[in-house]
Amino acid sequence: MKDLFGKAILDFQTDNAPEAIITETNISESDEMDVAYLFRAFNEMPNLEKKALQLSKGRILDVGCGAGSHSLYLQEKGFDVTSIDISENAIETCRLRGLQKASVQNVLDVKNDTFDTILLLMNGTGIFQTLAQTSSYLQKLKSLLAINGQILIDSSDIIYMYDENEDGSFLVPADNYYGELTFTITYKNQVEEAFPWLYLDYNTLQNAAIANGFQCELIKEGTHFDYLARLY
Questions:
Q1: DSSP letter (8 states) at residue 193
Q2: I need a surface site. Which of 47, 126, 127, 227 has the fewest CB within 10 A?
Q3: Is residue 129 helix, strand or coil?
């Protein structure tokens, strides 16, 4: 991987002529993302993210922390926050922003530690990659939870992106779950290798959570098919 997403983040942090990130999926056309959005303050965050941060407690693990905005807010509130991301450039940015415990790490490789809150935000189900791998990730996350710990995770039901039939049904793929997408990122005329990314509707997340020994609670719904859930 070229780590173009991380490069855009680091370019913004170091004022190295940052440009917009171009994203495209197998079911949608290209779209521009302003890197500045990843550096938003608490009062600029969507309500789902604000709610997740307000519900955070104890020792916190921020999975896929990106530019570190969620972690930074919690650290400034006095929480013990561990921030991880597979992007070296993103983690370098987090350290430059003042995060004290930021490391390049896949959540599947975290060992010998437990947390009271595990955050997976900005479509946190994306790191599961496919529906088939969801159970493996949930089992790993469960092993990292302290007694009475919680996972706060958000996602979206992207059924609206598919064509609707006259009877109200949708034209979705027959061979895979409709929330399984393939993403491509372009930055400064470089193209990242395509990667899988998973959007889970709430009912599917709830079923997967229960199958893996969790209780699952719908905390809040957003304005566009998105939601925040708590697993415990």
A1: P
A2: 47
A3: coil
Closest C-alpha to 67, from 27, 121, 146, 138: 121
SS3 37: helix
Which helix (H) or strand (E) covers residue 219, if one does?
Answer: strand 216-221
Token pair for residue 208? 């997967």
pLDDT digit string (tens) for 109-131? 999 999 999 999 999 999 999 99
Q: Are 114 and 32 in contact (CB under 8 A)?
A: no
Cα 69 from Cα 180, distance rounded (Å): 27
Would you say how long the chain is, in residues? 232
Tokens 């993403």 map to which residue? 183
Residue-wise pLDDT tens digits, 141-199: 999 999 999 999 999 999 999 988 878 788 888 889 999 999 999 999 999 999 999 99
Q: What is the pTM for the complete model shown?
A: 0.96
